[in-house]
């Protein structure tokens, strides 16, 4: 038995458990407890207690769904955080980018404006309901709306392509430019959760010493993402 390898696997499983299960439960429970204590201290309406707990459960569930997609199961029974994938391949190779690309793919403008619109609507709803039925629930709505609005505005300012394809290779922000000769394969992976589906493009490099992809690019919000894999296959096999 390789002791260091087994220790690493155990540590990764523990991190996966803490991030995917323990952290969302702790956050949801903390919000419920805070709502209960605050409602009693300020003698708020019983509605605040109920809606506060419902909000805690909802936020905990959202954190679980977000975190579960951030961890990739490995064949050895361990897990790896997708943010750690490809960390050794970030622009370390001196490959020269081509002067032009065959195809470039960007975030969908519709999805960007949709995030902004949803954020504004949630904030407006929180302001409207503030002190009419409760205090805690509208405050949580406003906080959530501000976060969604900020994320949408951040995406609107990002006008860079998410992936670029050339006759000689591909480019992503994480990997930089990689010739086709350095890529062993690309795959489309679909992960389904509760009423959510995440679609990823997985990119594997030939010099990778691990059996997991060097990058997982989320495709859901990229315009015309269904054309990416066929175009990659066409250029890769040319």
Keywords summarizing the entry:
single chain, 238 residues, alpha+beta, 3 domains, 4-stranded antiparallel sheet, 3-stranded antiparallel sheet, 48% helix
Q: Quick recap of the structure?
A:
The chain is α+β, with helices and mostly antiparallel strands and 238 residues long.
Explain this structure.
The chain has 238 residues and is of the alpha+beta class. It has three domains: 81 residues, no CATH class; 98 residues; 49 residues. The strands form three sheets. Strands 3-4-5-6 form a four-stranded antiparallel beta sheet, with helices on one face. The chain has a three-stranded antiparallel beta sheet with strand order 7-8-9, covered by helices on one side. Strand 1 and strand 2 form a beta hairpin. Helix 1 packs antiparallel against helix 2 and helix 3 runs antiparallel to helix 4. The protein starts with a helix and ends with a helix.
